[in-house]
Structures are given as structure tokens and as C-alpha cells.
């Protein structure tokens, strides 16, 4: 999903594009504990890969699940992470806080995959094409973001990773939530420059994104974008410009 943005940024930056553990071509270890797919574990993966490639300090930009990993990396490795870019997500703790009543139906999949191991995986496996395809279709507001070939590729890759994808989401309803709450209670902040770009979820769900992000990151910017969830593919030029604005701060 980052191809067009990465191609632009690599003209004058070193770009490392990583599939999170459990996704794409990365390893998909068995979920042996809640830590296997915690965002702390995933953030450590990123830091270790970057270090092996010779980068002890770096900026990190992520979308949705990757953005949650970026937040955790910033909290756990403040001397390593220089800048954080967030695409279309809230911190884990706040995500659950803003989902209330009937409006929470937009995130029905979060509740499904928060359930104990076994049943969610079986349910998704039974209708995997429809399950994963539904998000690609519903969140592609233009209907033109994905070619038929690319859509099929995403669905195929996701079908081969049901166990790990569910484990990732399950962690967000458990260990990741606990970590966020603990850090928030202890006053831990993201002190590096942080930039957030998102759909206008606040007006739909009744929250102020600037208030939420300001409570985590004193040096942040927020900008809405008129694009769907897959904004890096729908409007890569806007996301490249967003990244460049962040990196010069």
C-alpha cells in the first residue's frame, strides 16, 4: 500500500517498508501468548530491523495497525524514534473509549476479533473472501483505488493470515490496551514531533481528535483529509506531502 509514497520519498530519504509480523510476506508466528502480537513486540521488530540496516535513529510513519505500532515505538523507544506520522487511527485506549452505542457498529470487526481464540478465526475462515473484501470495498470511497488484480492480491494475502491478523486485533483489546492505560496514567508522552492525518471520524463518533492527540503528544499537528481509509493509495501525493511536512519539523 505504500508503494507510490515510498517511490516519491526515496528520492531524498532512505525508506524501509516493512510488513508487520503476521502480515504480507513477514513471518506469522503462532500466538503462544498475548505478547506474540502485542504492539510492543511489533515495535521491537521494527527497531531491530532498522538497527540491522544501520539506522539507530529514524522516523516512523504508519497506517492503522502500523500507526499503533508507531505510537508504541515512540513510547518505548523515545531515543530512537525521531518523528511519528499517523494515518487514520487513534491510540488504542482512545479507540475503545470513543466507540459507544450504535455508532460503534462502524468498528464491528474490532469486537469480533477481540473474542477469545478459536471462534473468531473459524467465523472469518468460513467467509474469508467476503470478510476481507468487504473492508476494501466499503472503505474505498471512490471505488477506483484498487484494481481487480490488487484487490484479489490483498484478499488472498489476508486469507493466508487469518490466525495472525486476529491475534493482532485481539492484542488491541487486551495487552495493548493495558499498556496504553498504564502509560497514560503515568504521564508518558510522545515528545518527538507527531503528525496525524485522518478522515473526519470525530464528527461521526463525537470526539475531538486534537484533544485526544494533544493529551499524548504536546508537539503534534492534525489535519483532516478528504479521502477514504486507504489514503496512501487513494491519494499518495497528499500523503507524501504530509510526510515531508513532518520530516522537516
Q: What is the assigned CATH homologous superfamily?
A: Alpha/Beta hydrolase fold, catalytic domain
Shape: globular
Supply the CATH class.
Answer: Alpha Beta
Main sheet characteristics: 4 strands, parallel
Measured as a percent range, the helix fraction is 40-55%
User: What is the residue-averaged pLDDT?
Assistant: 97
Query: Would you tell me the structural class of the helices and strands?
Result: alpha/beta
Which stretches of 5+ consecutive residues score pLDDT under 50? Answer: none
Number of helices: 14
Give me a quick take on this structure:
The protein has a single domain (3-247), classed as 3-Layer(aba) Sandwich (Rossmann fold), CATH 3.40.50. It is built from 14 helices and 4 strands.
What does this structure look like?
This protein has a single domain, classed as Rossmann fold. It is globular, with a radius of gyration of 17 Å. It is an alpha/beta fold. The model has no long low-confidence stretch (mean pLDDT 97). The chain is built from 14 helices and 4 strands. Strands 1-2-3-4 form a 4-stranded parallel β-sheet, with helices on both faces. Helix content is 51%, strand content 9%. It has helices at residues 3-9, 39-52, 65-76, 92-98, 108-113, 119-126, 128-138, 148-159, 162-172, 175-185, 201-205, 209-216, 231-234, 236-247, and strands spanning 58-63, 81-87, 194-198, 220-224.
Amino acid at each position: 500500500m505504500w508503494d507510490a509514497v515510498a517511490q516519491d520519498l526515496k528520492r531524498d530519504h532512505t525508506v524501509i517498508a516493512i510488513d508487520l509480523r503476521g502480515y504480507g510476506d513477514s513471518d506469522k508466528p503462532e500466538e503462544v501468548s498475548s505478547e506474540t502480537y502485542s504492539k510492543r513486540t511489533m515495535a521491537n521488530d521494527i527497531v531491530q530491523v532498522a538497527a540491522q540496516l544501520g539506522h539507530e535513529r529514524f522516523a516512523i510513519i504508519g497506517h492503522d495497525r502500523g500507526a499503533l505500532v508507531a505510537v508504541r515505538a515512540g513510547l518505548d523507544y523515545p531515543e530512537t524514534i525521531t518523528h511519528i506520522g499517523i494515518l487514520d487511527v487513534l491510540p488504542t485506549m482512545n479507540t475503545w473509549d470513543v466507540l459507544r452505542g450504535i455508532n460503534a457498529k462502524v468498528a464491528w470487526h474490532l469486537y469480533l476479533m477481540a473474542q477469545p481464540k478459536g471462534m473468531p478465526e473459524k467465523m472469518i475462515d468460513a467467509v474469508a473472501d467476503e470478510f476481507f473484501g468487504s473492508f476494501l470495498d466499503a472503505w474505498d470511497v471512490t471505488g477506483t483505488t484498487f484494481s481487480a488484480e490488487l484487490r484479489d492480491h490483498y484478499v488472498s494475502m489476508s486469507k493466508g493470515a487469518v490466525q495472525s491478523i486476529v491475534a493482532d486485533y485481539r492484542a488491541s483489546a487486551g495487552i495493548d490496551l493495558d499498556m496504553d492505560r498504564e502509560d497514560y496514567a503515568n504521564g508518558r508522552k510522545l515528545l518527538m514531533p507527531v503528525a496525524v492525518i485522518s478522515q473526519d471520524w470525530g464528527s461521526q463518533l463525537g470526539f475531538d481528535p486534537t484533544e485526544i492527540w494533544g493529551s499524548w503528544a504536546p508537539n503534534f499537528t492534525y489535519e483532516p483529509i478528504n479521502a477514504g481509509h486507504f489514503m496512501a493509495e487513494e491519494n499518495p501525493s497528499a500523503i507524501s506531502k504530509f510526510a515531508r511536512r513532518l520530516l522537516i519539523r
